[in-house]
Design a protein that fits this description.
About 35% of the residues lie in helices and about 25% in strands. It contains eleven helices and 15 strands. The strands form two sheets. A nine-stranded mixed sheet has the order 14-13-12-11-7-10-9-8-15, covered by helices on one side. A six-stranded parallel sheet has the order 3-2-1-4-5-6, with helices on both faces.
């Protein structure tokens, strides 16, 4: 490994432009060596704009041509496993966008492969890169007592993303703008609100509690679209705590959205506002504590995954979004989709998690 980590970007669409490509160009400890996207025009344009050394349309060809230490993967959800697997087998450490995959089988297979090969695998759960994220996690683990119940909500304005967009619309050629052609296609997205938004909420919840779901019962509604727009889940965690999670993409533009999780313990209740990167702890006896986001850090850490991953690979920090917890969230979401379809409680597949 050179002094500067050699990074590649796989996928040059909207989210890569919004979050990852600017960071790859800006971090001094990173050498941005390649962009890979099946659209040659888009790959070349991204390489020129952000200063990558080369552009490719195929991951295998890129791996043959360029020496790479790390890769960021931001491709359609259902494509993640083969891309990440190829990178891991080539000796590359990988930061992959959420969800890790869309099936538990694929998710746990990648976790085990990364462990077997001794590679670092992390997931782009943006809220876990906030400055206060580790403090919230430590407080849930150490200060609230026995976890009894968890209530979570994620409302957003995403219904438009799940609607089929006119393929002739001019802005589809602009990768810096979001559009629904990927999100509205279940063959690419694996689902709607559950895969795109609920995954944030449940990934954070499982990371903070250090637990996995055991069983889930879910309702979902597509509102006439090809993918789900509204989700409501009730689930049981190992250790006995019960949780609820709701998520909707129908929040009207201009209305306040909420991304919150409330942890009920026997000694305190912690309410985590993911959007504001802050939490309030309401202690037995009346004490109140505020975990406040430092003013010098962004509340929404959109650009933090790349520089954080570079530090992680160098061994400077712990993994803020480990793949095993991400796999546990994939397992819960997959079981929820089955439950909503079959109208019954569904057992959730569990794997081995390192809670350090």
């Amino acid at each position: 490994m050179t002094d500067r980590l050699r990074f590649a970007m796989v996928g040059a669409g909207w989210w890569a432009h919004a979050a990852h490509l600017p960071a790859l160009a800006a971090v001094p400890s990173i050498e941005f060596v390649a962009v890979c996207d099946p659209d040659a025009q888009r790959a070349n344009a991204a390489a020129r704009e952000f200063g990558a050394h080369g552009a490719f349309t195929d991951v295998a060809a890129m791996l043959d041509a360029v020496e790479i230490d790390c890769a960021v993967v931001a491709t359609p959800h259902t494509t993640h496993r083969p891309i990440v697997e190829a990178l891991l087998r080539a000796g590359v450490d990988v930061l992959v966008e959420k969800p890790l995959t869309t099936t538990a089988e694929d998710a746990w297979a990648l976790v085990e492969l990364a462990r077997e090969l001794g590679r670092t695998l992390s997931v782009g759960f943006t809220y876990q890169y906030a400055a206060t994220a580790s403090r919230v996690r430590e407080t849930v683990a150490n200060d609230i007592g026995e976890l009894v119940c968890v209530n979570a909500e994620f409302s957003s304005e995403t219904e438009g993303l799940f609607s089929t967009v006119d393929p002739l619309a001019a802005h589809l050629e602009d990768p810096s703008r979001p559009h629904g052609t990927t999100y509205s296609n279940p063959l690419l997205s694996g689902g709607g609100q559950g895969q795109t938004q609920l995954t944030h909420l449940l990934g954070n919840l499982l990371w903070n509690t250090g637990k996995q779901a055991v069983e889930v019962f879910a309702y979902m509604h597509n509102r006439g679209l090809a993918v789900d727009v509204v989700n409501a889940l009730t689930f049981r965690l190992d250790g006995g705590a019960i949780g609820t999670a709701s998520s909707t993409g129908t929040t009207p533009v201009g209305s306040r959205v909420r991304h919150r999780i409330r942890y009920h313990g026997t000694r305190a209740v912690l309410e985590h506002d993911l959007l504001k990167a802050e939490a309030w702890v309401f202690e037995a006896g009346g004490g109140i504590r505020h975990i406040e986001n430092p003013a010098e850090f962004p509340t929404y850490a959109r650009s933090e995954p790349v520089p954080t991953f570079a530090r992680l690979v160098r061994g400077e920090i712990a993994n803020p979004a480990p793949a095993d917890v991400a796999a546990a969230s994939v397992s819960l979401i997959e079981a929820a989709y089955i439950s909503a379809t079959e109208h019954r409680p569904v057992d959730v597949r569990r794997g081995s998690i390192n809670n350090s």
